[in-house]
Amino acid sequence: MRLKYTPPYAGAGDMPEPDVYVVTSAGLRIPAHSKILASASPVLESIIERPQKHRSTERKISISGVPYDAVYVFIQFLYFSKCSEEQMEKYGIHLLALSHVYSVQHLKQICTRGLAKRLNVENVVDMLQLARLCDAPDLYLKCMKLVSNKFKSVEETEAWKFLQDHDPHLELQILQFIDEAESGCTNVGPYDMDPNEHKGPCSKFSTCQGIQLLIKHFGGCKKRVNGGCSRCTRMWQLFKLHSSICDQPDECRVPLCRQFKLKAQQDRRGHDCRWRMLVRKVVSAKAMSSLSLPKRKRDDEPRVALHRQGMRSFRL
């Protein structure tokens, strides 16, 4: 183990001897004070108060998977509650992850604002995934808006192509957001409700709302023939994707579900391999999402599914 000679609290005047070391993935150790770390982070407090498995004169906290310099800046923030623009430029992504993992809310807010100012077409997809993982809704929304406004350019980036291959669920969320942002019509309502009683789409489920607005556009668009409208093309793809995973085509009220299902049974050519792979990924993502829900939520899922099924036919 090597030791960083300049502690993160350098310049703070007389300080007692450090009683804990933060060990990074590079094998470097950062001296620190347990009381300061515990007061700044409830997660670190829990780690510090946890009984040690092995008796040792040194207390250690391991923070791995993040560059040493980013950990050093993180510990420094716990002492002074400050982060420079240069540090944010270099380590903002790592600091957001650390602030989320160790529940340092003030740093998380700073990172959210700092990263939002640095969004661009090249990094927005990566930032969007990070914001989702770190539960940063403000940054997530700003990323979605940038993707929506610059979608043509974002589509050309390597990050977007990687997203299409590895996270189709997020891709569908992005497309839904774009369609919600572009559509100004709210005359569509659930299929089993009188239009006079319901002036706008279902507000209980955001997915229901977005799809209804998109279908309204799809029903009245004059350019959808021969692929003239990109929004209609995405709607067509959503219909096809739904049909690929729907297990009740004869009863399903989603438009074109049965027609796509019949066409798919007749067309088994090899060029459709990539589409079938996408379908498998979406089904897998839905299964993993269901397994990750708390038991109470899983028990409620059948009721939610019935509600969503009721929303699937619309008045155009």
From TrEMBL:
Keyword terms of this UniProt record: Metal-binding, Ubl conjugation pathway, Zinc, Zinc-finger
Entry superkingdom: Eukaryota
Residue ranges of domain BTB in the record: 18-87
Keyword Transport attributed: no
Associated pathway: Protein modification; protein ubiquitination
GO molecular function: calmodulin binding; zinc ion binding
GO cellular component, one term: nucleus
PROSITE patterns, per database record: BTB
One example of a Gene Ontology biological process annotation: response to hormone
Family annotation (Gene3D superfamilies): 6.10.250.3030, Potassium Channel Kv1.1, Chain A, TAZ domain
Name of the protein described by the UniProt record: BTB and TAZ domain protein 2
